[in-house]
Amino acid sequence: MEHDALVIGGGFAGLAAATYLARARRKVCVVDNRLPRNRFAKASHGFLGQDGSNPLAILAEAREQLSVYPTAALLQDEAVSARKDREGFTVSMASGQTLKADKLILAFGLRDELPPIPGLRERWGQSVLHCPYCHGIEFSDRRLGVLYRTEMSVHQVLIVAEWGPVTLYLDGARLEPDAARKLAERGIAVVDGPVSALEGDGPALSAVRLESGKRVAIDALYLAPRSCLSSPLAEKLGVDVEEGAMGPVIRTDADKLTSVPGVYAAGDIARAPHSVSWAFADGVTAGTSAHRAMVFG
Length: 297
Known about the structure:
By secondary structure, this protein is an alpha/beta fold.
């Protein structure tokens, strides 16, 4: 199968890129394993016209709308390898199928590496959260917390404090004097000692249990976990990858073109910070940039 472009990843960035290429009447195929990063959240916020909608439902509707275009194809599979050749790119799937295209758009997203604290993973996206802009107002003025992961956690807790009273759980870490001063000036509480578990009914969070046995009441806990690229294709293609504050980021220019000619990257893998709106916008940029390259060479 030969296409003008292959989009690896069918999240918000990938589907946006594919939609704009399809509207340009180019043959585009989206390869997606249907495991988007935000699949753990029941609602997506801040995306115009879809505020509060289920992210999986938004993506399902977007796939249905994309499928109407006669030059667009959707393939539920996983891209496992890719190489550049004289005619463009060849991408192999986990199913054994091979696809060829003139351009590649990488939009496969990130995978969050969550700390191994009992009770955390099953609440991820529900009451254990990443972004207060995405999931902050729903917990306004309730008992909030931030789990210390890196020095950036001090920055995060100062932001989360805009939504209500917040406590920083150091989880065995130590604060620098300047950071401790900033928190004290804002009236942010700090709890020492390792966290041993999170407790609550179902996905709800009611308490942080410390290794000492102490329990602290809480309704929502924020953390910024380290993330990694969810696909090996960036490495196999040899695109430049930079180390960001929370994990690797594919380096792109303003047109979302990577260091490898013909390969674009969009969404969380190619930017920080992250949101649905930014992913969509970056997908539009990648799709239209790839199309212009097809026109002008």
